Amino acid sequence: MRFTPRRANDSRLMAALGAFAMFALTSACSPSSRSASPHPPIPASPLEGPTDLHATADTRALFFNLRRLAREHVLFGHQDDLAYGYDWIAEPGRSDVKESAGAYPALYGWEVSGIEKDAPRNIDNVDFTRMREWIAEGYRRGGVITISWHVGNPLTGGNAWDTTSAVTTILPGGVRHEQFKRSLDKLASFLAALRAPSKLTGADAPIPIIFRPWHELTGGWFWWGVPHTKNDEFARLWRFTVEYLRDVKGLHNLLYAYAPNAAGPTGVDTYMSGYPGDAYVDVLGYDRYLDPPVSAAQIQSFTRELSWVVRQAESRGKIPALTETGMTAVRDSLFWTQRLARIVEGDSLSRRIAYVMVWRNANRAGRTDEHFFAPYRGQQSERDFRRFKADPLFLFEDELPNMYQPLPASSR
Ligand code: BMA
Q1: d(Cα 211, Cα 282) in Å, to the nearest integer?
Q2: How far apart are CA 248 and CA 390, in angstroms?
Q3: Protein residue closest via CA to atom 8 of ligand 1
Q4: Is the beta carbon of 360 within 6 A of some atom in ligand 1?
Q5: Smallest Cα–Cα separation from 38: which of 311, 322, 285, 268?
Q6: How do beta strands 88-89 and 84-85 pair?
Q7: Residue 394 covered by a domain
Q8: Phi/psi at 101 (nearest 5 deg)?
Q9: pLDDT greater than 60 at residue 207
Q10: Beta carbon of 123 within 6 Å of any ligand 1 atom
Q11: Which of 45, 91, 278, 324 is the most exposed, having the fewest neighbouring CB atoms within 10 Å of its CB?
């Protein structure tokens, strides 16, 4: 693992490096970090801000605002919210969340699978040029942007769900390493093109992005999942990805979200199995979905898992988040207040996640299944969703403070 300081004379950097090196030495070899016991060692001293010591001012402000706001509020997010909905596609201004709750989501999720193949549209048929416009639109209104990457299998050319082991081949020295760097080059070009007037200066600047690569690593359904890797290949892939985008491509508008899925009896048994180290992660995320009927026991276990993630994040100076959740087709008219809100508000720790994002509302045309995770106008949970919106814990876009306004050091 290589972490080359970019400014050797930065005493703050050297202090962080010293702490990190001490933590890395004490934990990298310890069985707990490798066997990923639910309570891995807590670092000597959390990094004090974003992992990128050269993050843009807007990106640094977003980091500190998310971490600070998490003590009192949870941003509500939705995937592909501006691009399409249950019964519309690419209609200006439309949003199923806005049309059912009365406001846009506070956080917008986008997916860039296909960018690595120079495709004009992503895996869900969203045009990349339009996506850049929608990302800028949400940012201009003050929203927060997060991006995932269901990148195709680099060895077989298959999709993300082709679980032919491939991580070894794209690491330095692997047969597809040069190809992988080209994929990262294309991703970097897209991310670098996400620009808008800075919320701070008004000058054209990169839009801060919470980048969530290699997600659901503790599951076996993606080729990058830890079950398809050996030793610390996943952590090495994560560190290479961060160092290449940051240090080679010069991207300083990214916060990196590490997002395992629920796995094992406690849900978080293997959470740290791919953990690359505190110097490479800004957000500790968690992906878990719900199927009806949701039992009280499921609500309680989900609350316990979120509390664990919050405790880990806060002890490391990171941002905790429920990075993907929801119930397919929301087949529960009280899902929002009686299930999701109950899970998040279940105890004093679980409610301190910074955001919760539900997955996309696939357009029903051409589908035989109902694949949506937020209500649309007239959907059975719409009324309950409005009650959820009224819950002061949860913030939609119309309730957001300026997430890009620098916080004084005293209140970070
Ligand atoms: C999955 C499903 C797929 C989609 C993929 C990437 O959860 O929604 O339909 O292609 O995410 O967005």
Answers
A1: 10
A2: 45
A3: 360
A4: yes
A5: 268
A6: antiparallel
A7: yes
A8: -110, -20
A9: yes
A10: yes
A11: 91
Please say if the pLDDT value at position 55 is more than 70.
Answer: yes
User: Tokens 């009896």 belong to which residue?
Assistant: 265
How do residues 365-411 score in pLDDT, each as one tens digit? 989 999 999 999 999 999 999 999 999 999 999 999 999 999 988 88
335-367: pLDDT as tens digits:
999 999 999 999 999 999 999 999 999 999 989
| Residue 2 in domain | no
Residue labelled with tokens 């992005």: 209
**Amino acid letter for position 135:** I
CA-CA distance, 200 to 238, in Å (whole number)?
31
Instruction: Please state the domain count of the chain.
Output: 1
Q: How many CA atoms lie within 13 Å of 332's alpha carbon, on the beta-carbon side?
A: 17
Q: Is 196 exposed, middle or buried (0-12, 13-18, 19+ CB in 10 A)?
A: middle
Interacting residues of 119 by C-beta distance below 8 A, sequence separation 6+ = 128
Could you tell me which residue, 109 or 21, shows the higher pLDDT? 109
Residue 82 domain boundaries: 21-32+58-411
Q: Determine the distance separating the centroid of ligand 1 and the alpha carbon of 327, expressed in angstroms.
A: 14
In a domain, 11, yes or no: no
* Parallel/antiparallel/unpaired status of strands 144-148 and 209-212: parallel
In a 13 Å sphere around the CA of 362, the CA atoms on its Cβ side amount to 15
> What pLDDT was estimated at residue 411?
84
Rounded to two decimals, the pTM is 0.90
Residue 228 lies in a domain: yes
Tokens for 350, please give them: 């679980």
What is the tens place of the pLDDT at every residue in 237-256?
A: 999 999 999 999 999 999 99
Structure tokens at 185: 């080059």
Q: What is the CATH number of the domain that holds 284?
A: 3.20.20.80
Active-site choice (111, 233, 314, 324):
324
Please enumerate in sequence order all residues whose Cβ is within 8 A of that of 202, keeping only pairs 6 or more positions apart, or say none. none
Beta strands in 90-134 (DSSP E): 107-111
**Ligand 1 centroid distance, CA of 197 (Å):** 31
